[in-house]
Design goal:
Blueprint (H helix, E strand, L loop, with lengths): L11 H5 L4 H20 L4 H13 L4 H14 L4 H11 L6 H13 L4 H16 L8 H11 L28 E2 L3 E2 L17
Antiparallel strand pairs: 1-2
């Protein structure tokens, strides 16, 4: 595959992300597809899938994959489930749970109504994964991502109002806690981070 370098005229968002020249070239391609889609009034999903496939084959970082998913899913919210599915499929049969989490979180965080978008995006990704062992982790990933959305209806609600734990009790004494130790509902001060426990 030919090595490319990002053009100096690349979108400002592309320049702000720490990435190699090859990764920036993929981001620039995605930005161009999104721009063309905005002009045409429809996102070219074939072109999106092509860039995501090439990027995954080239071994781009989760951070760069996340930026490309956010670009396309953010510009075309109705296509977010398809964009997330294409991104997950691009990793092939060896897709890892962290990569799936990264893609779902990126697609969700770029939506106008993140909380409501969790279900359709997660369902599309689960379907795209088919018989992959990672498919079974999608529901728990969806719960974790939903808890982190800024418009989560449980945000800022004390756990006590849900009858799960008393303020004086230890959190371990009955609170509903998500994988990673996050009490359900998150907090208004911690909107959806696009990272996992490993820091990807």
């Amino acid at each position: 595959m030919a090595q490319q370098t990002a053009s100096p005229a690349a979108a400002p968002a592309v320049d702000q992300v720490k990435a190699s020249a090859v990764e920036k070239a993929f981001m620039k391609k995605m930005a161009d597809i999104v721009q063309a889609g905005l002009k045409a009034g429809a996102l070219d999903m074939k072109a999106v899938s092509g860039v995501l496939n090439d990027a995954a084959k080239a071994g781009v970082s989760d951070h760069v994959m996340s930026a490309m998913v956010s670009m396309a899913a953010g510009a075309f919210p109705s296509n977010a489930p398809a964009v997330a599915s294409a991104a997950v499929r691009s990793y092939g049969p060896g897709v890892k749970e962290e990569q799936v989490r990264n893609v779902i979180a990126s697609a969700v965080s770029s939506q106008p109504h993140p909380y409501a978008s969790v279900a359709p995006i997660s369902e599309a990704v689960e379907k795209a994964l088919g018989n992959s062992p990672v498919a079974g982790t999608v529901p728990s990933i969806a719960v974790a991502v939903a808890a982190q959305t800024p418009d989560n209806p449980l945000s800022g609600v004390t756990v006590q109002e849900h009858g799960l734990v008393k303020p004086v009790e230890d959190v371990a004494g009955g609170s509903l806690v998500l994988p990673g130790g996050l009490p359900v509902g998150g907090t208004p001060t911690s909107p959806a981070p696009v990272s996992n426990a490993a820091g990807n």
